[in-house]
């Protein structure tokens, strides 16, 4: 996995206390035009005391077009926005519900609020 992507994810996770302990993976992936990020749930096999268990874990897929941005500061800011957006989906349990094309009325305001909290932490 990309080191920059993992570093930014760890920074973003600091404002999501409710997700502490949840293993979230992140990777770049070619996505359809206009999509900067998406979250999928992937099945993993864990071995616990000799028994195999299936565990579902979220994987945030970030568009490879972001990776190609030349300006590192702009790329990092965009990564933060995309990852916080996807983490809000995870924190609201949107992965366990049927897909909806619309966000809740307060969804975008929560994303902005979390980004502001993150900026304060990073200063």
UniProtKB/TrEMBL annotation:
Name this polypeptide is given: WLM domain-containing protein
Originating species: Candidatus Marsarchaeota G2 archaeon OSP_D
């Amino acid at each position: 996995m990309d080191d920059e992507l993992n570093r930014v994810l760890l920074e973003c996770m600091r404002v999501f206390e409710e997700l502490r302990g949840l293993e979230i993976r992140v990777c770049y992936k070619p996505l359809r035009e206009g999509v900067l990020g998406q979250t999928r749930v992937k099945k993993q096999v864990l071995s616990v005391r000799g028994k195999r268990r299936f565990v579902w874990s979220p994987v945030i897929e970030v568009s490879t077009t972001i990776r190609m941005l030349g300006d590192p500061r702009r790329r990092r800011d965009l990564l933060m926005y995309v990852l916080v957006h996807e983490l809000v989906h995870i924190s609201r349990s949107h992965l366990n519900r049927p897909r909806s094309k619309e966000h809740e009325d307060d969804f975008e305001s929560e994303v902005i609020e979390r980004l502001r909290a993150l900026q304060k932490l990073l200063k």
